[in-house]
Amino acid sequence: MTSTPRTGTSLAKAAPNVSAAQIRFQQVAYPGSVDIVTRELLRILSGRLSRCTICRNLRLNVAIDRGFDEAAVDYLEDPASSDLPARQQVVLRLTKAFLTDPEAFGAAEWAELRSYYSQEQVAELILDLVRFRPGSKLVVAAGLEPEDDELVYQ
Predict the structure, then answer these.
(1) pTM to 2 decimals?
(2) Which residues contact 46 (CB under 8 A, 6 or more apart)?
(3) Average pLDDT, 10 consecutive residues per value, the chain (154 residues)
(4) Among candidates 77, 25, 56, which has minimal Cα distance to 140?
(5) How many CB atoms lie within 10 A of CB 43?
(6) Which end of the chain has the least Cβ crowding within 10 Å, N or C?
(7) Which CATH class is domain 33-153?
(8) How many other C-beta atoms can be found within 10 angstroms of the C-beta atom of residue 49?
């Protein structure tokens, strides 16, 4: 069986453009305007749902310095049972729906999300989900996860 290339562009020719796009993405998305604690909760839940040891166990010191509480991790998959602010709870519901059942995040949930976050901030959160998911799946699929399931601070 043979395959036909979908494009006449080689990876070597495309790499500089991909690199430039990645740099531009980072400039647009970061540092961003959504608070780092909320983004950290999103990242950790994404890691849990992707079964990525690195993503679920890495803790960013900058988030800790700005109020990240390890106790919040216990409520990531059931934020309604937590005392997390409603604005963080809706982000966690978005994360879970985005990664497991997108249709579960309906019009009421979108309206709630938009009541706390601007259109730009919602896009930032979605970009985080798009960025985290492939990276964690790649690590898991390649078998490159660390053997230890311990917290790492960075």
Answers:
(1) 0.74
(2) 55, 95, 99, 128, 129, 132, 133, 136
(3) 64 74 71 89 89 80 89 91 96 94 94 97 90 61 62 61
(4) 56
(5) 23
(6) N
(7) mainly alpha
(8) 20
Q: How far apart are CA 12 and CA 115, in angstroms?
A: 44
> Apex CA 80: angle with CA 78 and CA 81, to 5°?
75
> What is the predicted pLDDT for the residue at 39?
93
The rounded distance, in Å, linking the Cα atoms of 81 and 65 is 25
Domain boundaries, the chain: 33-153
CB–CB of 32/39 below 8 Å?
yes
Cross-strand partners of 152: 58
What is the spatial distance between Cα 68 and Cα 36, in angstroms, rounded to a whole number? 8
